Amino acid sequence: MAAKKQVAVTARVVWILVALFLLITIISQLFIHYYNPLVTEPAELYNLEGYIQSTGVFVRNEKTVSYNGDGIISYVYDDGEKLAKNSVIAKIYSSENDLALQNKVDDLKAQIEVLKDAEKLIGSDNSQLEAFSSQIYEHHSQMIQNIIDKDYFSVAEMKNEYLNLICKKQIVSGLAENYTAKIAELENRVSSLSSQISSLPKDYSLQDIGYFVSTVDGYEDTLSFDTIQELTKEKIESIIDNPALSVDKAKIGKILSDYKWKMICVVPAEDSKNVYKGAQLKVRVGNASFDLTGDVESIEDADNENKILILNFNVFNQDLVKSRTAQIKIMFDEYNGIRIPSSAIHFDEEGKKGVFIKVGVNIYFRYIDVVRTEGDYTLVKDTTDKKRKGYLSLYDSVIVEGTDLYDGKIVLQ
Q1: Would residue 71 count as lying in a domain?
Q2: Cβ(357)–Cβ(406) under 8 Å?
Q3: Contact, 135 vs 161, CB < 8 A?
Q4: Does residue 409 sit within a domain?
Q5: What is the pTM of this model?
Q6: Domain that residue 174 falls in
Q7: What pLDDT digit, counting tens, does each position of 192-242 carry?
Q8: How far, in Å, CA of 76 to CA of 74, rounded?
């Protein structure tokens, strides 16, 4: 009797263990089937600027300027400034010390002019006080930004303008009656420094008309409008790698014959299918916030994967005259839509593109209309308000990581 009871207990334990095993197996299978760790990103609006990135080589009709004499050269004209016939482009000083003294004299004379200009407001009422305060604040902010950008040349240019505004504000507000004593002090310093200059500088003038640039890079005699068509992909790349060659020390600058200039660059053939001779393209040079408009002179095959593009520009740009090369972006239309990771794109049974989205515990497939692919992301049309059933909408949770995805699947997460 006891033996039978023992057998019954053993059987019951076995059945319980078998039941537990089956239950665990079923739960694990359900867990495996329904639990799927997913990573999602919201479908958000994005503006994409279409562009081709390259390095441009600037070509101009240039003539070098030489000086074989002794002395220290001080340029009178800024780079890119236009020359009239017989213009004095430089003054030749006998020594570095004379040049340094003259620079101090010029700086003091500029300060004197600032003070004399401010004194013209003596006797004025304070109605301009607020305007001066506003201008002082604007100049101060701009100078700080220039310092941050390491544009020290602009800071130096704005210094006297800033000082002039402060002096005018002091006159108008009554904080200063006049600047007579300060002007006299500065004039005495001018006289003292001028007397220390050993000899007057000699003028160096040119008969040429054009735009003056104080630097040379060695390409002036080989790059011109006449030779630009001869440049190959290899030659363009060589210029980019070596934008400045060794030059004769006697060459102290160059003259650009006119305001017109050209740019040549190598662009991917795949990205330039819609570029054609005569087209107008917008070009952004370096980190500029504005675009230059150029006309396509030619676009020819460089090899199986690249083309050589030549653009004509009819607007003189003073900021670029010292540069031979620069990073450029050839800008195209701006594209708007929803941006999604390219890795999130899948295909349905008919080969149509779409993405999987997660709504609660459910997964759904949503179709997309691709606008443009850039790198790891794809821009698709925003079909939110187009009443297109089954298409991606703004703010849908797009699945960017997950396995065994299909339309209608239920996940536990």
Answers
A1: no
A2: no
A3: no
A4: no
A5: 0.65
A6: 95-198
A7: 999 999 999 999 999 889 999 999 999 999 999 999 999 999 999 999 999
A8: 7
